[in-house]
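Re: [help] complex structure
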Amino acid sequence: MVWYFDFEEFYVAAKKLFFSNPLKTRFLFKYRNCDGKVVLKVTDDQVCHKIATKYSQDLKHIKRINNLFIQSMANKDLQTYQKETPKLQNKKKKVRAKH
Amino acid sequence: MLLTNDQFLLYLKKLFESNQKTGSVFVTLKRTNGQPPHKTNSTKKKKQTTNYRCLCRATDGKKKISTYIEHRNIVRFQIQYNTILQTNLKLVKKIVKKKKTKKSKFPRKSNIQKK
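Output below.
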């Protein structure tokens, strides 16, 4: 069981694991409202990748991973989703120089 | 309990609402062939028609619901599922503390010539 702290790394590892064994890998999403915690897990019963978060900023990452799995699992052809997708860019606020 | 996509999303909403104070909600996604994982005598004889679907299961430890997502329903299901997550996941906002630059009380006096 490997715990991740970066969503980009987790995304890459999850994608790799799924495309290596598409019929056996499953994606699990756990939410506890009392703790305010979300845990994502991708496993093929041999290797397991996990990541946990409690921040609302990570919701876009969670949605991205969900979309990847729903689209690629329901599709016959897996090659279209195996291509590298661009990384999510954090919107940085432009800081004006103080005169 | 196997349901249609719309029924599943309705029940999923109810699961989230009923587990607000205690308990957790689990949602699992898996790719299915329509065939059992282990080869049996019956699978060898029949012609294998591969119809790939996404099996989506949800539970709160007590109630179990499931649905099949097919290729034609992907976009619709995705949009509705994402809205359910948006409304039901109450997560904390990360506070990023800005580093305060200290202004010195005694500014540096440079190039000041004493007369």
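Strands of chain A lie at 2-4, 26-32, 37-43, 48-53.
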